[in-house]
Please model this.
Amino acid sequence: MKKFWLSLFPDTFLWIKENKGIIYNSKNFKYYIFHRSDEVNKLCDTLTELESLYTVEISEPLLHNQHVGQWVNQITNIEAGCLIEQNGYNKKLTSFYPVLSIQNGIDQIIWEHKLNIGGKIIENLYELIFYINGSSHGSDQYFRQTYYPINFDISVNFNLIELFINQCNNKMLNKITFIGDILKYKNFRQLQDWILFNDHFINIVLLTEDITKDITNVECFKSDKTNITIIVSNYSTFSKQLGFYKTLNDKVTFIFPVKSMIEIDSVSSILKEINFKHYNIIPLYNSTNRKFFEENVYMTLDEFNNIKLSRREIFANMTLNVHFFGKLTILPDGKIYSNVNDTPLGSIGDPIYDMLYKEMTERKTWFRIRDMKPCCDCVYQWLCPSLSNYELVIGKQDLCHIST
Model:
């Protein structure tokens, strides 16, 4: 009776969820979803044991089992593994089950903190987002979903901003975003001078209704290291001023928020009039357009079929939130957040180290991954994008149409 070794390759992931399993090849992005039979179940249990080195022995009669034979054929078809006959000449393949451990990193942070040598924690900070002031056209709801000016009556002094940036400076900090009614910011000239002479990539975000017909002061920010983002806050007004905005086509990025199919149609009409070089269409939730989100934003099976994640990207999904990690947001009142949908970490006058240590060890936002129900019972758990602000605002963990 012949015997074989079935070995999965190191870039192959095997996940079992309730009555289903998935085998994903992170090299060619092919995958195979299967229903678990008793025979296949036992083989999967052996493969996922670390001491098995991602290899399981299969006898010839077992290979002729309908469920096992189909399972093995699909694995080899997507190049996720190989079947080797034990004939005395072939050697058993040595492979390793892809395992990620992040606890050592957290333990290291805690250990360094106790010894007062935790300075490198600052290198986990990649972006600072300053809501420098409010806008009368801003929204207390939309800013919780994306970069969008808030409706706020106060502003943060730029001296405090500059001091905070200096405290946060590290080799990984590569982006600083300023959001608000920039032209009315009380320290506008100071902000302008600082932007022109700093080495960070700068993103400036403001609303069309806060520009009116004079963008001269904002245009002076434009350089290779500065991006100006203009959010179209009123489509009716914007359509009447297309000639003005056409002159900005090469200079700014336009954001078109959409909350309904009617607004999508408005954007389509605008784009037919002007071929904007840099633009994005971003959905916004307004508490009454749940159906719009379900039909246009929720993930579908077709979208999952087009997912192409490398081994490294999968490990990132299993470890941290790729949307939130490394970012701090400072509101006009000086409060600092790892995510504006959570409680603040502190205020702009607090030591940056203490806030980062709190975020890294309590793991509330930067490490918010899909380890909750129903995601933890889904075979697509680690192939699905990280939780976004949409989930937090809508109050639903799985914005998808996938049934497992």
About this structure: DSSP finds 15 helices and 15 strands in the chain. The longest helix spans residues 261-273. The two ends are 38 Å apart (CA to CA).
